[in-house]
Amino acid sequence: MSQPVLDVQGLSVNFRTSHGVVNAVEDLSFQIGEGETVAIVGESGSGKSTAALALLRLIPDPPGKIVSGSVRLDGTELLTLSESEIRHIRGFKIAMIFQDPMMALNPVYTIERQIGEVLQLHLGMSRRERLLEAIELLRLVGVPAPEERVQQYPHNLSGGMRQRVMIAMALACRPRLLIADEPTTALDVTVQAQVLDLIQGLKDKFGMAVMLITHDLGIVAETADRVVVMYTGRKVEEGSVTEIFDDLRHPYTRGLLGAAKWEEGDGDMLREIPGTVPSPFDMPTGCSFQPRCPLAEARCLSDRPGLETFAPGREVRCFIAGEARS
Amino acid sequence: MIAPPTASNVKEPPVLEVLDLVKHYPIKDGLFAPDRVVHALDGVTLTVGRGETLAVVGESGCGKSTLARCIMRLEILTSGTLLLHGKDISHVGGRDLRAMRRRLQIIFQNPYASLNPRWSIGSLVMDPMRLHKIGDAAGRRARAVELLQTVGLGAEFMSRYPHELSGGQRQRVAIARALAMQPDVIICDEPVSALDVSIQAQVINLLKKLQKSLGIAYVFISHDLSLVKHISDRVAVMYLGQIVELADTSAVRQRVMHPYSQALFSAAPVADPRAAASKRRIILSGDVPSPVDPPAGCRFHTRCPYAKDICASEAPQLRAVEDRFVRCHFAGEPGFPPPAPLSEGKYT
User: Fold this and answer.
1) Counting beta carbons within 10 angstroms of the beta carbon of residue B28, is it exposed (0 to 12), middle (13 to 18) or buried (19 or more)?
2) Picking from A237-251, B88-102, B236-250, B286-300, which range would have the lowest pLDDT averaged per residue?
3) Does one domain contain both B344 and B232?
4) Does residue B274 sit in the same domain as residue B177?
């Protein structure tokens, strides 16, 4: 493989709280190539959104801190850049879209001004150029009547249209990496299909790398090339989308998939994962999934399993999965 | 008016009947502005049998939550009739309304908002019994412990507070509260969509177990189509305040007949990459039109890929077509709706 667009190595993020230090992300490594979609999958508290914010150096410090690791974008280390240099990366080389477009758009600015701000800041366009480019971007993301929409405010738009506006802003500078944090969770299923279709089409058109954060395994199956499964801040499994769905190794991945593949579950009851995600202040000893794992043995309670590499890009953090292979 | 659609296999009289329910919300634009209304529900008719799960699916703004609130009599009905065990409850008040609410309970989407944070779990579960003057204090306490155990929480939860509980545990408390009244029907308004994936299955399994042992009927409002296909007996698909298709779930798994149902189910992601690669998918253009001014004729014609002239002028009725009810002029014609286009690989 040629040089990946994004190369994350050993990233760890801590939060200091009044109850002690929380390891929100621990020793996370993954890569995303050009034109590739990598899904980061996990439940709330798994550290997937924190990891995304850390890439952009948007972790509030204090209380948060990137304690170790390396984040390279096209070979450039981001964690050692100065504040003004990283600001040039954000929105220009790396763009991010969020779950709730109403929260991410400024309610008192027109769409023209919001998209124009990016164009002015990073590309130094004149006012006239900005207006034309904003209309062009809206047309690109499928907003009907862009000449009129560009003069409107976020509250004039539906949820799907707002998400399109946010995507238009994100794409304004043709970023190398698009981080999509639950981009369709707030949308209806027919609109979700439109937005996912749009992201996928634009990715192919511009050769972007896409980091898709989601908890919906249906979306993963339909859009991702590779999958990173996270649990309590650690990567527990990584593989191609077919490996994850057909040949999964980690009991947590199996549980997630069992809970999601509802229509296929024969019998009356759904397969469930017992218990709940542990509190970050009260982490179990050994493997963090051990209290909920149907296969847990004595060593899972005492020792922490390391990440075992089966093949390039195929990793599992589990004693039992590792042995089943050898 | 059409006859109330019922599942073919339901013999005994339905527990709950909703007949031609209409709910309009007036909008006040100003003193001299013309009166306008939001058409939240327009002529919804359905029945729920004992121990049955009727799923109501549709996108936001289709009226599914308004339907839940109307059935609970939390809204004043514009017109239409609600029958509970054959008794008209559409306009009852006072004591009769309270009696009716014992038979009908509701669970809301967000267990963080539906439980009073200042009350202990014990008080929360005992409160409905207190309001309905069931038993004495000691009896209510014993019953609350029993209910908590039924939903998989121990007696030690009696003295805890909602903030100490996870989302799944809170939803269990909401279920225990609903069960306290021994209802015949529980309206579940998106009961698991605020929960983590691994917790959703736990709560769904609990609801199914309770249904089996207590014979409770569910009106299960959801936008999760794969979940609905798994757990319901019948499915009602709603669009802009109307039911567009009502059928047994087994029939829906085979095929859907309304073009909107087709688009809705084809848009739902399936957790199987190989199925995704050979999936037939319709991507609708545009958004749901405003319920203030719903399109004339068929309400779906503005987004329907198969719309013809008649669809813009004449509103189709919900009518029996083969094994189900469909609101479409062309349903039942051979080869309609045509199969969705095969998507090439993944999206696009």
Assistant:
1) exposed
2) B286-300
3) no
4) no
Structure tokens at B306: 């198969």
> In percent, how much of chain B has pLDDT > 70?
95
ipTM score here?
0.77
Asked whether the beta carbons of A271 and A259 are under 8 A apart, the reply is yes
A305 vs B: CB within 8 A? no
Residues of chain A with pLDDT under 70: 1, 261-268, 322-326
What whole-number distance in Å separates Cα of residue A146 and Cα of residue B337? Answer: 32
Q: Give the nearest chain A residue to B209 (CA atoms).
A: A269
Q: What is the pLDDT of residues A38-92, one digit of tens each?
A: 999 988 888 888 999 999 999 888 888 999 999 999 999 999 999 999 998 998 8
Q: Mind listing the pLDDT tens digit for each residue in B165-206?
A: 888 899 999 999 999 999 999 999 989 888 887 788 888 989
pLDDT tens, residue by residue, B222-272: 988 888 888 899 999 999 999 999 999 999 988 999 999 999 988 888 888
- Residue B28 structural domain: 16-254
Q: What CATH number should be reported for the domain holding residue B33?
A: 3.40.50.300
Domain check: are B228 and B275 in the same one?
A: no
Minimal C-alpha gap between B36 and chain A (Å): 19
- The pair of structure tokens assigned to B21 is 């329910």
- Per the CB < 8 Å rule, is A256 touching B197? yes
Whether residue B144 is contained in a domain is answered as yes
CB contacts of A276 in chain B (<8 Å) are 166, 168-169, 199
Asked if B249 and B287 sit in the same domain, the reply is: no
User: What token pair was written down for A86?
Assistant: 């990283």
Among candidates B229, B264, B272 on the partner chain, residue whose Cβ is nearest the Cβ of A189? B264
Place of tokens 């469930």: A272
The overall pTM is greater than 0.90: no
B56 by Cβ neighbours in 10 Å (0-12 / 13-18 / 19+) ranks as buried
Whether B155 and B224 map to the same domain: the answer is yes
Residues of chain A positioned with their CB less than 8 A from the CB of B281: 193
Q: What's the number of domains chain B is made of?
A: 2
Q: Nearest-CA distance from A31 to chain B in Å?
A: 21
Helix (H, G, I), strand (E, B) or coil at B64: helix
CATH number of A6-93+173-325: 3.40.50.300
Same domain, B210 and B234: yes
DSSP SS3 for A153: coil
Interface of A with B in 196-215 (CB under 8 A): 196-197, 199-201, 204, 215
Name which of B229, B273, B276 is nearest A263 (Cβ-Cβ). B229
8 Å CB contact of A194 and B263: no
CB nearest to A241's CB, from B230, B273, B275 = B273
What SS3 class is residue B65?
helix
